[in-house]
Design brief:
heterodimer, A: about 200 residues, mainly alpha, Fumarate Reductase Iron-sulfur Protein, Chain B, domain 2, 2 domains, B: about 290 residues, alpha/beta, Glutathione S-transferase Yfyf (Class Pi), Chain A, domain 2, Rossmann fold, four-stranded parallel β-sheet, 8 strands, about 10% strand, globular
Chain lengths: ~200, ~290
């Protein structure tokens, strides 16, 4: 993944800043310029309590040319892509698709993620798909917890899930994991979905 | 009892949740399909649809994961999907392929076959559409008598703007289960997101979300919540910190009871919130469960 240089454009409302918005619109396939800040998105968002700006606020930051702040916000990581906002938006802006693009741009630009643990979880899931072609939940949890140096917070729950056979010890996998490697190579990403 | 989907044979995409953590969902669904005369052939060598995590950090990767599954689907058979999240990923990829010539050519290069424009991707609910119910079979009309349930679809069956012309499934669980004598409750959270992956990284954020959902069902005096989504099922079971916890059932488990096949002990054992007391009280346990 190559840097697109977008975060060098700061607090300007000139042509360069409009380029950033155009890029976001093109990649997300949704026109955030239509937002008139009615805040329906944040009103229905199940995680807005954890957000600093809420969905329309992130769009506003871009409109004001404050690209770095938008990319550094925790909001883009808390978004779970549940599409509640996308359904509620009277301007039919696919806000969840916009949030995908914001996260991906933050990664491409090397902006430190505001919520590294959420990113770490995503990396584990993608890593599991790379390895097995499917997700192996037990391994994802163990690796995630190890990485966070937090083996105890959900230990009771993990044991309960194991006892209830909700977590398989062995992965379910596809016959030829080489196929997954081919996909990752095509996308030019490493085995955790990150830049090489 | 008319089950009205036209095809009788389907390719079946279970997805990672049904294949592992929600096996009880998978087994009850297969049993119900068998009873209704549908033949499900598991999509050979299917891979993960990419889940929420992949499209969160790389759209291209997510698209290819979904495409590989589409490329495995044999022609002439609809692809049946059980998990709402997988359904969304696969349908979005298909729509993208239909609209974007460049994506189509990439698919052909990658998978060595052309895009099957006739491939129907359907959700399990569609098998039960068009008037399926107990109406034509008096024997089952009281099968679920006395069960007060909160129908819970979760968020993945909602449709983002690109999918606004797609089918809408809300109301189906109510219509079907009420025909078997159950009582559906009107409540505030049938499509509320369960928190999905944040359940692992941010349990402190997800617990209030889940509590709000369960409390909503408790407030309308529901006996249980019936879910359309295996991911939601898990989150509702593991992240509720309320004193009163409600049993959470997969729709397919309740359908199995409705159709006179009962509910299996091996499914119930996999529930973290014990549903046995409720099932006993309602007389839903058959002798050989």
């Amino acid at each position: 993944m190559e840097s697109t240089g977008i975060i060098r454009i700061e607090a300007s409302s000139g042509p360069a800043h409009r380029d950033v918005i155009s890029k976001v619109v093109e990649r997300s396939g949704t026109d955030i310029r239509r937002c008139f800040h009615c805040q329906s998105c944040g009103g229905g968002c199940p995680v807005s309590q954890a957000m600093a700006y809420r969905p329309n606020g992130v769009i506003r930051l871009l409109q004001l040319g404050r690209v770095r702040e938008a990319l550094q916000s925790s909001d883009i990581w808390y978004c779970i892509g549940c599409n509640t906002c996308s359904m509620a938006c009277p301007q039919a802006i696919d806000i969840a698709a916009f949030m995908d693009v914001m996260r991906q741009m933050a990664l491409e630009e090397g902006v430190p993620p505001a919520e590294p643990d959420i990113l770490a979880f995503h990396r584990e899931v993608v890593g599991s798909i790379h390895k097995y072609g499917r997700t192996h939940k037990l391994e994802i949890m163990m690796r995630y917890k190890l990485r966070q140096l937090d083996m105890f917070s959900d230990l009771d729950l993990g044991l309960k899930m194991l006892a209830k056979r909700k977590l398989d010890l062995l992965p379910s996998k596809i016959t030829d994991p080489g196929i997954m490697k081919r996909i990752f190579e095509t996308c030019k990403v490493n085995n955790r979905g990150g830049g090489r | 009892m008319a089950a009205v989907a036209e095809a009788l044979e389907f390719s079946y995409f279970p997805g990672c949740s049904l294949a592992t953590s929600a096996k009880e969902n998978n087994r009850s669904l297969l049993k119900v399909c068998q009873k209704l005369g549908f033949s499900l052939v598991e999509l050979e060598d299917w891979n993960c649809c990419g889940s929420s995590s992949t499209h969160s950090i790389n759209s291209e990767l997510a698209f290819h994961f979904a495409c590989r599954n589409l490329s495995l689907a044999p022609a002439g058979r609809p692809l049946l999907v059980a998990c709402p999240s997988c359904m969304l990923r696969l349908r979005q990829a298909q729509l993208h392929l239909q609209e974007d010539g460049e994506a189509q050519r990439g698919y052909e290069r990658m998978w060595g076959r052309s895009v099957d424009s006739n491939l129907d991707i359907i959700h399990f609910f569609e098998l039960l559409d068009n008037g399926f119910g107990a109406a034509s079979n008096p024997e089952f009309q009281t099968a679920l008598n006395g069960l007060r349930f909160a129908p819970y679809y979760g968020c993945m069956l909602t449709r983002p703007p690109a999918m606004r012309h797609e089918k809408q499934y809300h109301g189906l669980m109510e219509k079907i289960l009420c025909s078997f004598g159950a009582e559906s409750l009107v409540w505030g959270h049938p499509s509320r997101c369960c928190g999905t992956f944040l359940s692992v990284a941010k349990p402190a954020v997800v617990t209030p979300m889940v509590n709000q959902i369960i409390q909503g069902a408790v407030d309308v005096k529901a006996d249980c919540i019936i879910t359309a989504c295996a991911m939601c099922h898990l989150n509702l079971e593991i992240r509720c910190s309320l004193k009163t916890q409600l049993p959470i059932f997969h729709f397919s488990e309740i359908l199995s009871i409705a159709l006179g096949m009962g509910i299996k002990k091996s499914w119930l054992k996999r529930h973290l919130v014990d549903p046995l007391p409720l099932l006993k009280a309602k007389g839903f346990l058959s002798h050989n469960y």
